[in-house]
Input
Amino acid sequence: MTAGGGKSKVVAIIGGGVSGACVALHLANELPAGIAEIVVFEPRGELGRGVAYDTEDPAHRINVPAARMSLFPDRPEDFLEWIASTGAVSRDPEAARPDGNLFPQRRLFGAYAASRLRPAIEAGRILHQRATVTGVEKTDDGWLVSDSTGIETRADLLVIATTHPSPSPPLGLQAVLAGHPRYVADSTVPGALDNIEPDDRVLIVGNGLTAADIVASLTLSGHRGPITSVSRRGLRSRGHAATAQDPFGDFTARPAKTASELLHSIRQAIAQAAGEGVSWHAVIDEVRGHGRLIWQGLPLAERQRIVRHLRPFWDVHRFRVAPQVEDVLERAIGEGRLTIAAGSVADAERDGEEIRVTLRLRDGSRPVKSFDAVVVTTGPAHGGILQSQFWLSELDDAGILELDPTGLGIACNERSEAIGRSGDADPSLLIAGPLARGTFGELMGLPQVTEHSVFVAGELHRKLTGG
Output
């Protein structure tokens, strides 16, 4: 069976999380009727949820205030208005913070996103193909997309908006612990923590936002055993400023040309902000707000230096934990239940269900510790994106896709058109969302993701209408 055989053009979007759903929504809202069919391939029951917002875990909360979460950049309080109109947090007293900000459970943003997509789907402006893509082929007149339902869809334009690849567990752990009932290689899988017992000694490999979520989830479920979180530098995600602040600093008047210049200017701005009673949060917010301009003004070699040396420090300041989660972390540390270590896993062995791990700490020591459970939260394996799904691997083998030289995603130009092995861009193949951040810079926070989705929708509109 073949879909997309009508006279109108067909836009196929692979991935129906926030990035892909936003592209579809904004394109559907702007495109005149009859110009194109928009097909979104997403196996989940609703568009707009993706991995981040498809969780039912009540410990998982949005990491920024609801007032800054929206699918519409020109309507920044749309999510907040949806909450007010639906009474979505009426049974969640912890959502409201003393400063008036709301940090609701993450699943609510998924429900909001799905609700904003629903009218376009019901009106037939967006087709939700609830299936997994199994193959993508470049044809003489466009693209042929095969999916798990057996349908083949012919498309004139193709958008790749897939999620991040799963974490890449340390090879030593994977070899030793594969099959262990309390070894969690991918914590995003529903029910991944169900086998962990209340008194289990838990090792978390990684110490970013996902690790914070793990601690919060375990605590909410009644876990009381000791937790050790180990990461290379021992950095943990920071919290939010005590009070609202406007972004601070100027990073565009004289854009930095090297990683060192950028670091120096950020440090200088933080010092200046402190002198005026403003916290570092405002400076990082200013950098984030101009992330695309700053990033695209840097030569490739300097972008690569930032990824190699500065990214961990940026991540812990940029990606902040929700106040409710920060409270859990602080309490666990204060009680001695959570220990944060700087180092890595040197070795592991299994004795029945007990796991003995040798840690290589930054102070040079190599303690051997026993655990009952190990959870990997090392973050997405960006370098393996083209091997994460069969159809992506095929496009890689065919030279149609290339890994971005920064290692952050898929190579594309400043119009978000994919760049293949030849070095040429394919105007019929676009990259949307965080997988384009090697070119566009800051594309992880929701405001930047939605802005980029609007940009990609605009590029598609131009290609379809000639405007």
